[in-house]
Specification:
This protein is α/β, with parallel strands linked by helices and 686 residues long. It folds into 5 domains: 60 residues, DNA polymerase, domain 1 (Orthogonal Bundle); 98 residues, OB fold (Dihydrolipoamide Acetyltransferase, E2P) (Beta Barrel); 100 residues, no CATH class; 190 residues, 3-Layer(aba) Sandwich (Rossmann fold), CATH 3.40.50; 156 residues, Rossmann fold (3-Layer(aba) Sandwich), CATH 3.40.50.300. The strands form 4 sheets. The protein has a 7-stranded parallel sheet with strand order 11-12-10-13-14-9-15, sandwiched between helices. The protein has a 6-stranded parallel sheet with strand order 16-21-20-17-19-18, with helices on both faces. The chain is globular. The two termini are 34 Å apart. Bound molecules: adenosine-5'-diphosphate (ADP) and magnesium ion. The site of adenosine-5'-diphosphate has 20 residues, from helix 12.
């Protein structure tokens, strides 16, 4: 086959391969394998040594073994559900080959009486005889070389056997010829200097998969660059539109600066500078402000709003919940004191009469700044001249949603997203490559680290005593019984039980929030807590990110051993948002795993979300870290930000080179198909 033929072949449906009937096709589809190239990404997880041929007097129970035997006798019981048995022998002994859920005809066919066969499978011992149940391989003795090998193990669905899969992969690998290289020489040298065809073959044939070896690195790099190509297209689309540059002086922000009683951190100042440059630019801003919980993103966004408004535009600020909207609204009123900026609040709860006035005043430009929930983007909300959209606590936007968002508000509208999910350095561009990123790493000076303790559940009485003392000192308490997915019902019951027992100990002090409450019920409890009608808040669900409860400075997290580092850090971030001292108690059930011990140790020693995200990635693999699931990054099949961090860096450099010339993109057409990225690129460029 030549280059084009190989490429065409790989993009065809698997059904053209030998041995793919309707059933196998269905099974493959279950594993998301439809094109021939999809087969390639299901690479071996390990290898089974079937070279180990033993005579029947020399078997070891539990070992994968290959035997050469003669078929002697069938035992096909007529009772349903009993397995079929075939008795075989060599000159040293006998063995039963046992088949569950099989057909008589099939067995007679693969194991004809008196024939010599080679069989490979795991040795069992049952009712005084050796047996192999559902052997992986049964072949005529002439084919022994096909079995007597170190054979790749694949992760497969039921019904799709190793034998079938191997047959398919072998057909595919045989047809792959060398392709024209899509990477430059320079890049190729950095990533292992091996062609795609060689690398893919080695991935399937190598005995020890080594993710640091050349063939693996080459393929991982292909994957990273295909991902960046998508982000690059998305970025180009977002940046396509020119806008009227915003023109402002620092009149408003100077007034505002007097309205809060702290100095901005250097990172906050830098973020404001970045944003100001964007606002003044001729191109739309599409920036994400990343900063750990409590790092002070809100004030940065309020200053951005002030500058937008001062240049004659309106600004909107969207947050996920009503309470958060109200809190940001109150803060904005305070911060904008002494200016003539008109601020309004719009949520799903705003009554009809007020809404009508708001709509009118948005249209005639009387309202400068609107804060609220999703209600801000209803169809009937029309702005006179919207210049800035701010979206808070949003890490669930995939590439597609980001593009939709960039189209909102018209050409003159800049966009600022804010996220509290710390992302390890290596992944920032891979996740946010289509946006500009500002990061707030430095915490406000007055901030003390949250003191973190761990306690086994048996010591609950000590914890309760501590809670009692804190409440007397007017410190409020979060008591989190986070949902563990195993059984939502049981989890819920546990939280209710905890609530009841805490109510007995602390009458009239406790509230409960759980997933089954509706918005109003939830808001009522949260408001009671905010207004200190209650001082202990038990919750099953994550307490709203972002709400400031200034006097809640103790958080107790049950079952803490079940959670990942980043999750625990996010939960802990509900306290310690002011200069006051704060404490986090991690409760755990006995017998901590080593990994859980490590997590607790990291949390005790650090309050730095970025460092914790890196550690989390090391302990768990990057796929599970909070927030990445939604980012599309989880779909990496080969690339690993820890072991391939240098490849990510090469790719970040390389993508800039590629972007310089439109023709460069064409070289990657086939690569994008290989990684299923072609469709999304078409969508971006519709
Ligand atoms: P987040 O980044 O999680 O949204 P916020 O903007 O809500 O954090 O800020 C958390 C708290 O820190 C708020 O009470 C805010 O007023 C305060 N804050 C923000 N910046 C500073 C600073 N530079 N110095 C002291 N406190 C600050
Ligand atoms: Mg916030």
């Amino acid at each position: 086959m030549n280059q084009t033929n190989t490429q065409n072949f790989l993009t065809k449906n698997v059904s053209i391969l030998d041995g793919v009937g309707a059933k196998t096709k269905r099974l493959l589809k279950k594993k998301k394998i439809e094109k021939i190239s999809d087969l390639l990404w299901n690479f071996p997880l390990g290898f089974t040594d079937r070279t180990n041929v033993k005579s029947l007097d020399n078997l070891e129970i539990g070992k994968i073994t290959t035997i050469k035997v003669k078929v002697i006798k069938y035992n096909f019981p007529r009772i349903r559900n009993l397995p079929f048995k075939v008795i075989c022998e060599d000159n040293k002994g006998k063995i039963d080959i046992v088949f569950f859920n099989s057909r008589e005809g099939y067995i007679r066919n693969i194991l004809p009486i008196n024939s010599n066969v080679i069989i490979s499978g795991k040795i069992n011992y049952f009712k005084k005889s050796y047996q192999i149940t559902n052997p992986a391989y049964v072949l005529p003795i002439e084919k022994e070389n096909y079995v007597k090998k170190v054979i790749p193990k694949y992760s497969l669905t039921d019904g799709l056997t190793e034998k079938i899969y191997r047959k398919l992969i072998e057909q595919v690998l045989k047809k792959i010829t060398e392709l024209n290289e899509w990477h430059s020489k320079n890049v190729l040298e950095k990533i292992g200097n091996i062609s795609w065809a060689k690398a893919i073959k080695q991935l399937h044939e190598e005995k020890d998969i080594n993710i640091k070896s050349s063939y693996f690195r080459r393929l991982a790099y292909d994957e990273i660059i295909s991902h960046l190509l998508v982000l690059s297209e998305s970025r180009k689309r977002i940046k396509k539109f020119k806008k009227i540059s915003k023109n402002f002086d620092l009149k408003f922000s100077n007034i505002i600066n007097k309205n809060f009683n702290f100095d901005l951190t250097n990172d906050q100042k830098k973020a404001i500078e970045d944003i100001n440059v964007d606002l003044k630019s001729n191109y739309k801003m599409f920036r994400i402000l990343q900063g750990d919980v409590g790092s002070g993103k809100t004030i940065v966004s309020l200053i951005a709003s002030a500058n937008t408004i001062s240049s004659g535009y309106q600004a909107v600020f969207m947050v996920p919940t009503e309470i958060l909207a109200k809190q940001h609204f109150d803060l904005a009123l305070k911060v904008f004191r002494g200016t003539n900026i008109k601020i309004q609040l719009l949520t799903g709860k705003t009554n009809f009469k007020d809404k009508k006035i708001i709509f009118k005043e948005l249209l005639n430009g009387k309202i400068n700044f609107l804060i609220g929930t999703h209600a801000l983007f209803q169809k009937n909300v029309i702005y006179k001249n919207l210049g800035l959209i701010i979206i808070d606590e949003q890490h669930k936007f995939g590439v597609k949603q980001r593009i939709e968002l960039s189209d909102k508000g018209g050409n003159n509208c800049d966009i600022l997203l804010m996220s509290a999910t710390p992302i390890p350095r290596t992944l920032i561009m891979a996740i946010y490559g289509d946006m500009d990123v500002s990061r707030i790493i430095e915490k406000p000076k007055d901030r003390k680290n949250t003191i973190t303790l761990s306690k086994p559940e048996e010591k609950i009485e000590e914890v309760l005593d501590f809670v009692n003392k804190q409440i007397k000192k007017k410190i409020q308490v979060f008591w989190v019984c986070p949902l563990i997915e195993e059984s939502a019902k049981l989890d819920y019951a546990a939280a209710v039980k905890k609530y009841n027992s805490l109510c007995k100990k602390f009458p009239n002090e406790v509230g409960l929030i759980h997933g089954a409450l509706n918005k109003d019920e939830k808001n009522k409890v949260l408001n009671n807590f905010l207004k200190k009608k209650i001082n202990i808040l038990v919750s099953t669900t994550v307490i709203e990110v972002g709400i400031d409860f200034p006097d809640a400075n103790l958080i107790i997290i049950e079952n803490s051993n079940k959670f990942g580092l980043s999750q625990l850090h996010q939960l802990r971030g509900r306290v310690g948002r002011s200069a006051a001292e704060s404490t986090c108690i991690l409760l755990y059930k006995k017998n901590l795993s080593d990994n859980a011990k490590k997590r607790i140790k990291v949390l005790k020693s650090s309050n730095d979300g970025f460092l914790i995200a890196e550690e989390d990635m090391k302990l768990r693999g990057y796929g599970d870290v909070l927030g990445y699931q939604q980012s599309g990054i989880k779909n990496f099949k080969l690339a690993d930000p820890i072991h391939h961090s240098d490849l990510f860096d090469v790719a970040y450099q390389n993508i800039k080179e590629i972007e310089k010339n439109k023709d460069n993109f064409k070289k990657f057409d086939f690569l994008l198909k290989l990684f299923d990225k072609a469709d999304i690129i078409n969508e971006i460029n519709y």
